[in-house]
Amino acid sequence: MRLDALKTPSLDRVLVVGHSGGIGSALSAQLCAANMQVIGIDRRSSNLNEVQLQLKARLRGSKSIAKSMKWLDRNGGLPSRVAITIGTYQRIELQDYSERKFRDIVDDNFTSIFWIVREAALRMTRSGGGRIVIVSSQAGVTGGGDPVYASAKAATIALSKSIAREFGPVGVRCNIVAPGPVDTPMARAAMSKDRTSFYKAAIPIRRFSTAAEVARVIMFLLAGDVDAVNGATFDVDGGLVRR
User: Which of 127, 181, 191, 202 sits in a 20 to 30 Å window from 243, CA-based?
Assistant: First the structure.
């Protein structure tokens, strides 16, 4: 997909939740290259030149999301394009889960996303519509070695389908990008050498996807001429799942 094919007004505003992460930072760079204003919210500050305005916030629960929305209201309001790229992966095995670890993984990979999507969908309804793209994972489709992580990612896919169905008639479009293994700092920290070798042998293109490749698919859904695409899940996995 060429950036010049995107039918988006110059200096349009996009909210990237998780802009300092691997995929979020790649997306922010591409949005900036397409003359779009990037607004970022993340638990970590970023020195990315591509992010014109950013808020450091740990998004946990409805109260923290409400504070972030108030910050957006003071800075031009919620954009009509929202990308949610947050999530954590620790690859915890079933027998090693405590109740606290369970809550942490579900909060990071689903609960926070639910409250953001709820606010975005309701506000977009009042403002004439918009687009939401959620970064999930292939684990949400196929399962994985970390059952809680996989379950939380599956929940984001169900959430997107529900939003697409209920809010599509009022102009809201909600889609999922589901990467397989991506070459990011989070993946490198979580995967052993044996696990990395296993995936590279299993993926038909014989390598991990890059953050930039995932970001280009998000760009397509945020800014492409694809109004009929709604409630869909896009695999970016080098042919690993082939569904």
Answer: 191
Q: Which of 153, 174, 154, 178 is nearest to 164 (CA)?
A: 174
Closest CA to 176 of 117, 134, 118: 134
CA-to-CA distance for 243 and 41, rounded, in angstroms? 33
Phi, psi (deg, nearest 5) at residue 48: -65, 125
How, if at all, do strands 13-17 and 37-42 pair? parallel
* Of 225 and 7, the one with more pLDDT: 225
Q: Compute the distance between CA of residue 57 and CA of residue 54 in angstroms, rounded to an integer.
A: 9
Q: Span 7-232: which CATH code?
A: 3.40.50.720
Query: pTM, whole model, 2 decimals?
Result: 0.93
Question: How many Cβ atoms are within 10 Å of 186's Cβ, its own excluded?
Answer: 15
- Residue 196 gets the label, from left (phi > 0), alpha (psi -120 to 50) or beta, of alpha
**Which residue numbers are catalytic?**
149
Integer-rounded Cα Rg, in Å, for the chain is: 17
Structure tokens at 126: 């009042």
Residue 4 confidence (pLDDT) above 80: no
DSSP string over 138-164 = THHHH--SSHHHHHHHHHHHHHHHHHH
Q: What is the pLDDT of residue 27?
A: 97
Q: For residue 49, what pLDDT is reported? A: 81
Burial, 162: exposed, middle or buried (Cβ in 10 Å; 0-12, 13-18, 19+)? middle
**Which pLDDT does position 81 carry in this prediction?**
97
Spell out the domain ranges in the chain. 7-232
For 189, how many CA atoms within 13 A lie in the half-sphere containing its CB? 7
